[in-house]
Amino acid sequence: DAVLELERVGLAIGGARILKEVSLAVPAGELLGVIGPNGAGKTTLFNVVSGVVRPTEGRVVLDGRDVTREPVHRRAAAGLGRTFQTSSLFPALTVLENVRLAAQADLGAAASVFRTPRPTDAATERARDALADVGLADAGDRLAGGLAHGEKRKVEIAMLIAMEPRVILLDEPMAGVGSADVPALAEVIRGLHRGGRTVLMVEHHLDVVLGLADRIAVMHHGELLAVDTPEAVMANPTVQSAYLGEGM
Ligand code: ADP
Ligand code: MG
Ligand code: MG
């Protein structure tokens, strides 16, 4: 069964059609790569799914429930989590404090983060587990602002894990990460997927997407050109001609 369905989703802004009749069903546990040239509408698609932007046409269905008109926080409470293209960490807080904020937001106790942390706190435990999941068990006391790019991205993923989402949207999780850190980050994403979570990932590192994804969705000028296995997508003549001369 599909955990996420888009039904003929369209978005028009000031006469420009940013998304055009995008229909897509994502089965539970799938890792779907989303590729396409800059400006194709990938981030906008994530904004529509997460509730940041309301589509002008069509429906967004989460676990069989129409959430098209629901705000971001309701979708988050229903198990939808996302990262953004730019970093969302508080640089002056420690790594553990950042991740604990996310856990507490999910536990509905955000106000208590500014009190002395208690080791038995459920949020602290969740945060520590999430940091261990991304290989940063020993980085909890470091300041988030002092981390390398690749580490920041891992902490952002730990923040997601701490919110216990079932459906995760990753928007260019490798952006700004040095090539030496790409394999480790890919492993973290593979781990998210192994946990049974459904993952949608926009990524420009084609080799990474092709290696990780069960299927790949190709966006082009606001349209979904193809959704297929990595092999079939790369062999698709429509996809090939859409990219001709445009680069990724
Ligand atoms: P991608 O993530 O694939 O690079 P985006 O989803 O960011 O592409 O953008 C798709 C297109 O929609 C771009 O042409 C962008 O300029 C346009 N766009 C996105 N958001 C808005 C907005 N709020 N108002 C006007 N145009 C927008
Ligand atoms: Mg882009
Ligand atoms: Mg984008």
Helix/strand layout:
Blueprint lengths: L1 E12 L2 E12 L3 E5 L6 H9 L6 E6 L2 E2 L5 H6 L2 E3 L12 H13 L14 H12 L15 H14 L4 E5 L10 H13 L3 E5 L3 H7 L2 E6 L2 E6 L1 H6 L1 H7 L5
Parallel strand pairs: 3-8, 3-9, 6-7, 7-8
Antiparallel strand pairs: 1-2, 1-4, 4-5, 9-10
Helix pairs in contact: 3-4, 3-5, 4-5, 5-6
Bound molecules: adenosine-5'-diphosphate and magnesium ion (2 copies).
Organism: Agromyces agglutinans
Protein name: ATP-binding cassette domain-containing protein
Pfam family, one: BCA_ABC_TP_C
Brief digest:
The chain is α/β, with parallel strands linked by helices and 248 residues long. The protein contains nine helices and ten strands.
Structural account:
Helix 3 packs across helix 4 (122-133) and helix 5 (149-162) packs parallel to helix 6. Strands 6-7-8-3-9-10 form a six-stranded mixed beta sheet, sandwiched between helices. The chain contains nine helices and ten strands. The longest helix is centred in the middle third of the chain and has 14 residues, at 149-162. It folds into two domains: 1-79 and 168-248, 3-Layer(aba) Sandwich (Rossmann fold), CATH 3.40.50.300; 90-164, no CATH class. It is globular. Strand 7 (167-171), helix 6 and strand 8 form a beta-alpha-beta unit. It has 248 residues and is of the alpha/beta class. One magnesium ion binds next to helix 1. One magnesium ion (MG) is lined by residues 42-43, 85.
